[in-house]
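Section 3.1: Structural characterization of target chains.
Under the original work plan, the team committed to producing a structural model for every single-chain target entering the pipeline before any wet-lab resources were allocated. The record below documents one such target. The sequence was received from the expression subgroup and is listed exactly as submitted; it comprises 348 residues.
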Amino acid sequence: MTETAGPAPAVPAAPESAVPGSATPGSAAQEAAAQEAAAPQAREGWRQPPAAPVQLDRLRVIVNPSAGHGRAGKVLPAVEAALRGWASEVEVSPTRDIAHADELAAAAAAAGQVAVALGGDGLVGRVAGATAAGGGVLAVLPGGRGNDFARGLGIGRDPAAAATALATAVERRVDLPEAGGTAFIGIASLGFDSQVNALANRTRWLRGQSVYTYAVLRSMVSWRPATFTVSVDGGEPEQVVGWTVGAANAAYYGGGMRMAPNADIADGKLEVIFIRRCGRLTLLALFPRVFSGRHVDTKHVTVRRAARLSVTADRPFQVYADGDPVADLPAEILVRPGALRLLAPPAS
């Protein structure tokens, strides 16, 4: 949902160790190097920033108080108390707008603090981009409507409990994709999804997963198939007629829809998903499968793996990522392997 608020070797990252203490070089550097080697196309003209010296028990909470119909602001006191139970420093920084989140994340990296994003996926994606640019470390707490990236990491829905669990999180290098030059963390998509996201962001009387389900069902009524022209990893352009083109770094979007069940945030690739032309009744029958990921087993869905995707269409669409509009067509979507230092649950 909308938040209102030449190639180089990989830089050594911190090992997977408990949060308290400082980040030091370790085995995660080998993981980052392997990720970069896996997707050379995505490295052109981009250099990974040096890793900032971050103390993992010094935290800056970047919060959008209005996220999730004000949920983030309501849970903030409990989150802050939980963090102070184990961290040596907790600084709380509310966002004035989404651009302000960039400034706060950059300041956290410069100050050697972990940037803890408390809000929706849009805020998480924005903080991730600025944190990666500064070589900092990101942590995620659920505070919005969808919280899909947190869901994929195995982080529970209780923000205070997640804040307590952050004490045992480990640092790892993960991928950071971009759409039209804007970083995102989960899934970028366009076509029918553009229409659905726009409606979901205008809908205020529903919460959580229900708002996205409502937007899907209502948007079906007026949808007509689109013709997308897609080039995967610089290959010959191909036409895809249908509903949606997506590029997934993570598995979930739309408040729990498992759009890309095999996506891996640390494999240096995107899951490219085409939902091809079919009737409304067929899509309606297909829709429940997206919550388990079984939709990818049908003939109407094609999944490819790529490091770079160029896409345009026969009519204007905005590319949405993490619930926000991030690019117009034509657009290029690519992945930066190992670009982001992330604190995540040990089993994620």
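Confidence is low (pLDDT under 50) at residues 1-43.
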